[in-house]
Amino acid sequence: MKRLALRMLAASTLFLTVAGTASAHRAWLLPSSFTLSGDEQWVTVDAAISNDLFFPNHHGMDPATITVTAPDGSAVEIQNAAKGEIRSMLDFKATQQGTYRIATGGGEPFYFASWEENGERKRWRGSLADMRAEGIDKKPDVEVSQSSRSVETFVTLGAPSTEVFAPAGKGLEFQPVTHPNDVFTGEPVSFKFLMDGKPASGLEVEILPGNDRYRDTPSVIKATTNAEGVFTFTPELPGPYWFTAGSEGDTVVDGMPMKVRSSYTATFEALPL
Questions:
Q1: Nearest to 109 by CA among 125, 95, 85, 132
Q2: Domain of residue 252, residue span
């Protein structure tokens, strides 16, 4: 894949809309605890898309799309998964010491296509293989775009570890400078983004404290990644936070030009000192 141009902007594709707007639908994964102690612990994760952060009022995520990765990289069994109309949930048992990743999205990108046929606008969504099998890419004046998105959160049992953050080198990826389970109010926090394995510079990021439903102003924090792909901010309010960033540009896949969009969203917790 050859990237011709890349323009960084604050956006989330699909059901992830630009943060900071009053009517935005924000996707989030919220664990019952971000940090745990002991030999083993149960964790419950809420999964929803809502107008207000961590207050389910729009649509529940499909728990079948959510994975849990243990500190050693192995898959963790999900139990008691249930999909609700406005909130879904799942449980998992943490038995290894270290940091777990709970995620949906990622993996292979999916594709959108639109074209005119018999005076009617047609739209299609699916994999690249299906697009070719169905001849969608051969439609006259077809417009194709590639999209990928990730929604994640992290839980640590015992001491934080970093193995689950190993980059795959594809798309927009999060890298901790400050570990997301080691964040405290009043202290600077630094996170990093990679795009296709390289530092994503100039990326605009929006960070929002949870429970915005109960505030007169959203208290959005805005930051921009530097040449190393790092952005820094200082959380002032204790509690869960949500942040999002996205990129949009142009690419060519096997000779087919298309728009390419990537987004990343995560939740973490800031503890009072």
A1: 125
A2: 2-271
